Every structure is written in C-alpha cells, then in structure tokens.
Amino acid sequence: xxxxxxxxxDEAKKYIAIAEKVAPNHQHVAFFSAELxxxxxxxxxxxxxxxxxxxxxxxxxxxxxxxxxxxxxxxQYEQAEEALSSFVANQPEHVxxxxxxxxxxxxxxxxxxxxxxxxxIISKAAGDPQFLxxxxxxxxxxxxxxxxxxxxxxxxxIAPDAKTLRTQLAATQMMAGAMDEALTNLxxxxxxx
Length: 193
Known about the structure:
Radius of gyration: 20 Å
Strand content: under 5%
Shape: elongated
Distance between the termini: 43 Å
Largest sheet: none
Mean pLDDT: 87
Structural class: mainly alpha
Order of helices and strands: HHHHHHHHHHHH
C-alpha cells in the first residue's frame, strides 16, 4: 500500500502480482489492483477489478470511495452518488469525498443536496477555495446570489489571483444586479493578462 501512496506504481505492480498468486480472491488484492488501474487512468478496468472486491466484501468502506471516483470519472453520476454517499456516511469528516459528492449532485441537478453535503463541514474546509467555490455554485443554482457571492468572496480572499473565481464572482454579481462590482472584477481579470 505504501508504494501506491508514494506513487511507485512499478513497485506496487510487483507486489500486487505476488499477492494475486498467494490470495487471488482477497478483497485487498482486488482493491489495490483497482486503485492502481484508477491511478493509471484505466477507469473501466479499475471498475471491473473493484467488482471482484465487492463480491467478497460488499461493505468495504474504502471501496465505496474508490468506486465513487471511478464512476464519477466514467460519468455514471447516479452510481457515483450512491457510492460516495455511503462513504461519507462512514467517514463524515472526509472533505475530499464531500466535495466530489457535492459536485456529483450538482451534475445531477441537485444543488440542495450539494449544499446539504458541504454545510456540515464548512468550518473544517473554510480555507479551501475550491470548496467555497463549489458551495457558491450550489447556492447560485438554488437562486441565492447573495450567499453565492459571499462564498466566492471568501474564496478570493484566500486565492486573490484566481481568474476563474473572480470571473465567477463577476457573473454572480451581474445576476444579482451589482453591475459596478461585476465590472470591477472583470477589469481585474483583464488586468491580470
């Protein structure tokens, strides 16, 4: 496992091959093999390999996260939501899983569901501009430009040179009718080029 964490894929492959010979039906062997395939960008192969782990251990919590990532990458958002929801239920403090689950719910046109996933850990993730932008997007989709602007401004306080965030803030401000502020932000983006 340390080889995967240290991005030593070739070493990991050697140990996975040995483990497959010794314990071909063990959940960890299939899980690590699936994780390696996922890291290599072989999503369908990773999905197929992970199914082997689920046959042995259908409630394997780390498998839910990996399944969520794989199915998200395969654009199978309903399945990704199910797997990620299961993982978050068991690991409620995992910010990364919550962000991916929220983004999945936004892709499924469920901004209220995205907000419900993000708000419980807002104090833990308040320093993450990506988290704040995601929360802003969810609020904007529910028709709340005030909250959307608030979270985008917080994100820009952390990452003031982020053109994408500043452009998103300008669009949000335009939708809220704050044209002067929006033009100021767009000018700042233009000045960065």
